[in-house]
Amino acid sequence: MTHDPAANPFADDDVPRQPSFKSPGTVGMILFLAALSMLFGASLLAYIMIRVYRSDTIPLGRIQLPHLLWLSTALVIGVSVALVIATRQIREGRHRAYRKSLTAALALAAGFLTVQSPAMINLLGQHEQFRATNVQFYGLIFFLILLHALHVVGGMVALVLVTARAYRGDYDRPNAGSAAASGFNPIDLTTLYWHFLDVVWLVMFGLLISMR
User: Fold this and answer.
1) pTM for the predicted model, two decimal places
2) I need a surface site. Which of 58, 88, 118, 134 has the fewest CB within 10 A?
3) Is the model's pLDDT at 180 over the cut of 50?
4) Separation between Cα atoms, residue 123 and residue 147, nearest integer Å
C-alpha cells in the first residue's frame, strides 16, 4: 500500500529533525558575539553623540589620529586571512602547512597589539595636552581602542591554545576535517571570533576617520 502524503499532512512529524547548529560551542559563540556587538555598538553610538554634541570644542576633521592605526588595521586583517587559510588547510589534511598558518596568525596578532601600544600612548599624550581645555575626545578614542585591544588579548589566548594543540597533533586525526566542517573544531570558533574583531575594528576605525 502506497503512502499518500496529502492524506496525512502530519505524517512527517515523526521524522527526526536535524538541529540548526550541530555544535553547542557554535551556539555559545554566536550568543557571546551578539552580546559583544551590543557592547561595541553602544560605545560607538555614545562616541558619535558626544562628537556631534561637542563639535564646537574641536571641529570635525581636526582630530589627529596616530598613523600607526593604519598599520594595525592591516595586521588585524592579516590575522583573519591566515586563519581562513589554516581552516582550509586542515580540511585538506595539510598538517604542516596549517600549523605554519596558525603561527603566522599568532605573530600578526602580537604585531597588532605591539603597534597599538605606541598609538594608544600617543592618544593619552594628546588627551593630557587638551584636558585643560575640557576636550575629552582623545580620551574617548583611547577608551574605544583599549576596549577592542582587550578583546584582542582574549583572541590571542585562544590562538595560543589552538596553536599549541595543533603542534601536539590534536587536529591531525582522520575525523578532524569532518569535525571542522560541523563547527566542532576550536579553530573554526577562533576564526569566527577573529572575524568579529576584524569587523568591529574596521567599523570603529572607519567611524574615527570619518568623524575625527
Assistant:
1) 0.80
2) 134
3) no
4) 14
